[in-house]
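Our example pasted here:


***
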Amino acid sequence: MAALHKKPDVVTLDYSLPDLSCEKLIKEVKNFNPEIPIIIVSGQEDVFTAVNLLKEGIYD
């Protein structure tokens, strides 16, 4: 979050963050700039989660 002021072209996140909810971080990035593409990397196999992230505009 501290680097968002640098206006990145894309944000990449691991879905399983150790100290912050990925959903919360996505909302904060989108509140800062809804045009920043977000790519989620994840080893989890929950299709429901993947579909919901895609509905929110997250790239796979």
